[in-house]
Amino acid sequence: MNILDAIHPLQSTSQFNLIFRISDFEMQDSSNFKIYSACCFTRMIDSQFDLVIVGGGIVGLATALQGIRKQPPARLAVLEKEAAVARHQSGHNSGVIHSGIYYKTGSLKAKNCVSGAARMVEFCREHSIPFEVCGKVVVATNEAERAGLGELMRRGTANGVPGLCMIGPEQLREMEPHCTGIAALHVPGTGITDYSRVALKYAELIQQSGGQVLINCEVRRIAKRAGEVVLETTRGAIKASRIINCAGLHSDRIMRLAGDESTLRIVPFRGEYYEIVPARRHLVRNLIYPVADPRFPFLGVHFTRRISGGIEAGPNAVLALKREGYRKTDFNVRDAIETAVFPGFWRMAVKYWRSGVGEYYRSLRKQAFTRALQKLVPEIQSSDLEPAGAGVRAQALDRSGRLLDDFVIVRSNEIIHVCNVPSPAATASLVIGEQIVEMLDA
Ligand SMILES: Cc1cc2nc3c(=O)[nH]c(=O)nc-3n(C[C@H](O)[C@H](O)[C@H](O)COP(=O)(O)OP(=O)(O)OC[C@H]3O[C@@H](n4cnc5c(N)ncnc54)[C@H](O)[C@@H]3O)c2cc1C
Q1: Does any domain span residue 149?
Q2: Which residues are CB-neighbours of 194 under 8 A, at least 6 positions away?
Q3: Contact 316/201 with Cβ under 8 angstroms?
Q4: Does residue 156 lie in a domain region?
């Protein structure tokens, strides 16, 4: 069925308040969803909901889905400022279903990633979303990195990641014939998928269960009144009994709009990708990672096979001067000033300026980026790589200059703020959503 034919009015609470709902269609692809997004929700004034989720990324949508599954038929809405869901982090990532080897045992990341990955695979299978459990190798190229591999093996085992195996250079060559290293950790459970499609499916299921996904609906102000919260949006005022803030790169701002104190600031880190030209794709079979620097919550530039075909190299981690700045030249005065006046930024800069300069250098000099990749696959050349877009990570920083590694979710009366959900939050989205919904009743 054509999506446009499937649109029908759901309710009309006043002459000016027409809300539409999609039903009875099978989402074919994301372009269809854009048509639906652009034409569906034209007006939305003075609506009342039990639960409102701010942010239509994969975490907000997963939370809404788990919320509506737990308490049907809750009056629930997801508010998204863009013209479609998953336009930011959830639509600009590596598409890896992480297995859980990196995270400190006992952390929220460790707890959620292993079960989250299994749930993601199950979800993709159930809803015919393309995925593949292709495995990955983490490669040590010197003795110091070999020690790092041992730590990953120990953490992964403690976190319950199945099938981990240390391999030598020969076995590595059998798996990845163009990759060199003195040792590697094989992680057979790592997979790949397309998180935009996962997010679109979440949105479709929310709609089918009676919830609403309201696009072009930016939250501008928040007022707390007795027993309810009023959100002033670009679609008018929306009242809700409870709110969940899943605004990603803007989650700290939503927290401040709600009048809640935060000692954290979101600092945007752009991750830039290259793609290997088709004639050289044979250099990489699946996923090849370096041993990451444990001081940072980033994994280092690596090779990732995309579920849609092709091999990407990256992402790096460059401090961005605009929260949604996907190009190197993007700059936003407010974003840059907010970062610069935050004391934690300067404390971080003093500690890590050398790594930061290195990231900028690799960002501006393709040859330097290529050299980082050549540590893993020596045959790769600068001419094999074409620019392939970027994503911007919402990374929380505290006042002491610490980049927060773990997920951070806090409750302030009727509002839950999802303050820090970097990678592997796409992998773990269904489990994170479930936990947030449980927090509502705690
Ligand atoms: C380069 C990169 C690579 C990554 N690779 C992986 C990976 O391989 N595997 C993995 O598991 N994770 C990966 N991640 C992490 C993962 O993508 C994120 O953790 C996840 O997408 C976060 O989802 P989210 O819903 O919190 O944020 P987002 O997707 O950013 O969604 C937040 C939404 O809130 C909306 N919003 C903001 N302000 C407002 C407002 N005022 N009113 C209304 N709406 C608002 C935004 O428009 C946005 O759509 C990667 C991230 C990046 C950037």
Answers
A1: no
A2: 95, 129, 130, 307, 308
A3: no
A4: no
Taking the centre of ligand 1 as the mean of its atom positions, its distance from the CA of residue 70, in whole angstroms, is: 24
CA distances from 348 to 53, 270, 305, 396 (A): 32, 17, 33, 12
3-class secondary-structure state, position 370? helix
User: Is 103 among the domain residues?
Assistant: no
Taking the C-alpha atoms of residue 39 and residue 31, their distance in angstroms, rounded to an integer, is 13
Q: Is residue 301 packed enough to be buried (19+ CB in 10 Å), middle (13-18) or exposed (0-12)?
A: buried
pLDDT tens for the chain, 442 residues long, are 333 333 333 333 322 222 333 332 333 333 334 333 433 444 554 589 999 999 999 999 999 999 999 987 779 999 999 999 999 999 999 999 999 999 999 999 999 999 999 999 999 999 999 999 999 999 999 999 999 999 999 999 999 999 999 999 999 999 999 999 999 999 999 999 999 999 999 999 999 999 999 999 999 999 998 889 999 999 999 999 999 999 999 999 999 999 998 899 999 999 999 999 999 999 999 999 999 887 787 888 999 999 999 999 999 999 999 999 999 999 999 999 999 999 999 999 999 888 888 899 899 999 999 999 999 999 999 999 999 999 999 999 999 999 999 999 999 999 999 999 999 999 999 999 999 999 998 8
Residue among 88, 238, 409 to mutate when testing ligand 1 (max atoms within 8 A of CB): 88
Residue 246 Cβ contacting ligand 1 at under 6 Å: yes
Cβ(244) – ligand 1 distance below 6 Å:
no
**354 shares a domain with 342:** yes
Length of the chain: 442
**Residue of the CA atom closest to atom 4 of ligand 1:** 93
Q: How many structural domains are present in the chain?
A: 2
Do both 207 and 70 map to the same domain? yes
Q: Is residue 133 part of a domain?
A: no
CATH number for the domain that contains residue 326: 3.30.9
Task: Pick from 423, 430, 432 the residue to mutate for probing ligand 1's pocket: most ligand atoms within 8 Å of its CB.
Answer: 423
Q: Is 328 found in the same domain as 434?
A: no
Same domain flag for 311 and 251: no
Distance from the alpha carbon of residue 58 to the mean position of ligand 1, in angstroms: 7
Which residue intervals of 41-184 are DSSP H helices?
A: 58-70, 108-126, 143-158, 169-175
Residue 352, domain extent? 266-398
My answer on whether 213 and 297 are in the same domain is no
Using the atom order of ligand 1, give the atom closest to the CA of residue 392: 53
Nearest CA to ligand 1 atom 35: 55
pTM attached to this predicted model: 0.90
Based on the domain organization, do 346 and 432 belong to the same domain? no
Q: Does residue 271's CB lie within 6 angstroms of at least one atom of ligand 1?
A: yes
